[in-house]
Amino acid sequence: MQNQEIKQLIEAADDAINREDFEALMEFYSDDAVLVVKPGLLVRGKEQIRKAFEAIAEYFNHSLAVEQGKMCILEAGDTALVISNTVLNVGQRTDASYSMDRNATYVFKREEDKHWRCIIDNSYGVELLDVEDKEK
Amino acid sequence: MQNQEIKQLIEAADDAINREDFEALMEFYSDDAVLVVKPGLLVRGKEQIRKAFEAIAEYFNHSLAVEQGKMCILEAGDTALVISNTVLNVGQRTDASYSMDRNATYVFKREEDKHWRCIIDNSYGVELLDVEDKEK
User: Fold this and answer.
1) How confident is the model over B62-107, as pLDDT tens digits?
2) CA-closest candidate to residue B18, choices B65, B56, B52, B59
3) Rounded to an integer, what distance in angstroms lies between the CA atom of residue B28 and that of residue B121?
4) What is the value of ipTM here, to two decimals?
5) Residue to substitute from A71, A83, A135, interface B, most B β-carbons within 10 A
6) How many C-beta atoms surround the C-beta of residue A86 within 10 A?
7) Predicted pLDDT at A52
8) C-alpha to C-alpha distances, B18 to A133, B51, B67, B84, nearest whole angstrom
9) Order of all β-strands in the sheet with A29-38
10) Distance of alpha carbon A98 from its chain centroid, rounded?
């Protein structure tokens, strides 16, 4: 009995990432949202998050494609924890394509306008414990 | 720069579990909280959560001792995701003691009274993806 609304939001957000429509992507985030760019590097707020996605797109030479595999959504009141097998395909437009597979943790919040938005975007899941914690 | 209040709450909650003071333990949970008893089995609300802890204590013959190792807290507005290496020691009062090591995910919420409370208690972390999702 999963929250279909959140599942569809994540699919639509992935689609925005894959199209590099970062303006549309920001609609999925809360104003207070935090994104784990990589273990040890966090960014906060829509402006910083959009810049991080632009840098990530550049880093992967505009070849990044994200999709979700198996997903588990734990909903409690206005909060939901999403655990998802996130697959990142990189370099599909070249011969050197490869994919990365992560067990991600996302936290969603149902805000005052009743829409669910991502408040914590941590695609590294529990891997964060493997590195020192520090914030940009 | 971790949220020390949440870290201390988790330590105090572990202490309540280890003393089997489940009345005190319930103070750490939101009214809407959900607990993953085991993958595929969720319980909701303080009454069900307390009963689950009583059953867990019974199951481990009142020998369960919980402590946290390395912890990472991602805070965003009134929401926080805790990723923690949770160590469960079982059977310390017998010769057959052993310990279980889990990378847990807990979600905390700062409620209207400004206190942080656990809203999603998932000590299994991303392991939830390994089993079918079903709710009691």
Assistant:
1) 999 999 999 999 999 999 999 999 999 887 555 556 678 899 999 9
2) B65
3) 11
4) 0.90
5) A83
6) 22
7) 97
8) 28, 15, 9, 18
9) A41-44, A29-38, A116-122, A98-110, A79-90, A65-76
10) 19
Q: Does B4 touch chain A (CB under 8 A)?
A: no
Neighbours of B108 (CB within 10 A): 27
Asked if A72 lies within 8 A of B1 by C-beta distance, the reply is no
pLDDT tens digits, one per residue of A69-108: 999 999 999 999 999 999 998 875 555 566 788 999 999 9
Domains of chain A, with CATH numbers? 4-135 (3.10.450.50)
pLDDT band of residue A136 (cuts 50, 70, 90) is very low
At B34, the amino acid letter reads V
For B92, the token pair is: 């310390």
Percent of chain B with pLDDT over 90: 76
Interface of A with B in 58-97 (CB under 8 A): 70-72, 74-77, 79-81, 83-85
- Distance of alpha carbon A25 from alpha carbon A17, whole angstroms: 7
Distance CA A42, CA A62 (A): 22
List strand residue ranges (DSSP E) for B8-133, in order: 29-38, 41-44, 65-76, 79-90, 98-110, 116-122
Burial class (CB in 10 A: 0-12, 13-18, 19+), B10: buried
How far apart (Å, rounded) are the C-alpha atoms in residues B80 and B106? 8
Locate tokens 């609304």: which residue?
A: A5
Tell me the nearest-neighbour CA distance from A95 into chain B, angstroms: 31
Higher pLDDT, A133 or B11: B11
pTM: 0.91
